[in-house]
Amino acid sequence: MTGGELDQKVLYIGGFGRSGSTLVERILGQLPGFCSAGEIVFLWQRGLIDGQLCGCGVPVPECEFWSRVGKTAFGGWDQIDAHEMLAPIYSWFTEGFDTADIRDAKALLGELG
Ligand SMILES: [Zn+2]
């Protein structure tokens, strides 16, 4: 680390579901010098808020790897509010949900029970 910044490169792999991006990530994660973080987009909600299991088999908040990440990044997960971290992300997706098609679909789902 120099100047408070991580001296690491980040490789972002994006893809649609079932596109093979997870396979590529898993393969790269096996190489020396790579650290595979998985679907990090779900870290806040599924990992920290819902407490779902990490790939290592323990809940994310108790996982040794993710605990070290939280401590390095924020001084510990208890120093931040995951809901607060998600708020700006969720606000990105509020537009477009109130369209006629969405309203019609919602009404139909309501009628179907
Ligand atoms: Zn883990």
The biggest sheet amounts to: none
**What count of structural domains?**
2
Number of strands: 0
Q: What is the arithmetic mean of pLDDT?
A: 87
Q: Helix and strand string, N-terminal first?
A: HHHHH
- The share of residues in extended strands comes to under 5%
Q: Helix content range of the residues, please?
A: 40-55%
Structural class: mainly alpha
Shape: extended
Uncertain parts: none
User: How many angstroms does the end-to-end distance come to?
Assistant: 56 Å
Ligand inventory: zinc ion
| C-alpha Rg (nearest Å) | 18 Å
Helical stretch tally: 5
Protein architecture, described:
There is one protein chain. The protein has 113 residues and is an all-alpha fold. The chain folds into 2 domains: 1-38, no CATH class; 42-112, no CATH class. The chain contains 5 helices and no strands. It has helices spanning 21-29, 43-49, 64-74, 82-92, 100-112. Helix 2 (43-49) runs antiparallel to helix 4 (82-92). The longest helix is centred in the last third of the chain and has 13 residues, at 100-112. The radius of gyration is 18 Å and the shape is extended. The model has no long low-confidence stretch (mean pLDDT 87). Bound molecules: zinc ion (ZN). The site of zinc ion has 7 residues, from helix 3.
List the helices and strands and how they pair.
Layout: H1 21-29, H2 43-49, H3 64-74, H4 82-92, H5 100-112
The chain binds zinc ion (ZN).
Tags for this model:
single chain, 2 domains
What's a quick, concise take on this entry?
The protein is built from five helices and no strands. The protein is mostly helical and 113 residues long.
